[in-house]
Write a structure and sequence with these properties.
- The chain is an alpha+beta fold.
- The protein has nine helices and five strands, in the order βαββαββααααααα.
- It has a five-stranded mixed beta sheet.
- Strand 2 and strand 3 form a beta hairpin.
- Helix 5 packs across helix 8.
- It is globular and about 45 Å long.
- The structure holds glutathione.
- Glutathione (GSH) binds next to loops.
Amino acid sequence: MKLYYAPGACSLSPHIVARELGINVELKKVNNKEKKVEDGADFWQVNGKGYVPVLELDNGQRLTEGPAIVQYLADQKPESGLAPKNGTFERYQIQEWLNFLTSEVHKQFSPLFRPNTPEEYKPIAKENIGKRFDLIDKQLAGKDYLTGKQFTVADAYLFVLLGWTGPTGIDLARWPNLAAFHKRVGARPKVQEALQAEGLVKKAA
Ligand SMILES: N[C@@H](CCC(=O)N[C@@H](CS)C(=O)NCC(=O)O)C(=O)O
């Protein structure tokens, strides 16, 4: 399988999930500004939506939308526990988290990265993110991960979103459980591998 990604973007979530599952994906780096794949291909031809992530199966079928991709990957190895079994209430709870993260958190960050966003809007977006963080911080009290002791696809996504706080000037220290979660997930060996592969951290010497 191939994963089209941009370093540090939301595509890092399926990248982490693939590594946690031990699924080998060929990484295809996309220049998101120029909409070019590293091999020179026109990214618009890969995904008409013009954004990462895209998972390309060995039969050429393509899947877009991070929350769908991570579930597809996890279902290749159900024994991993990265997503609870389809049809169970626990699975719907993971979908509840994925949907919340994508629509209420991820998409509040997006304007903070766009050069044409009016400066006056940025504090409003940050305040909205802060309200969502208040809730997630409470959820994480006394837990290692969003749903307890088991690392899931929702945790991979949350980790990536928290990584955007630094570049957008949001201080995670306000949310101690979130800050601890960010450290905890960041220390997972497969997460480190993914960060290194995307050139976001250097390999330890
Ligand atoms: N709804 C999509 C959103 C994906 C998305 O926002 N991708 C961003 C990176 S985090 C992107 O590639 N943006 C490029 C652009 O919009 O031009 C998903 O959840 O996968």
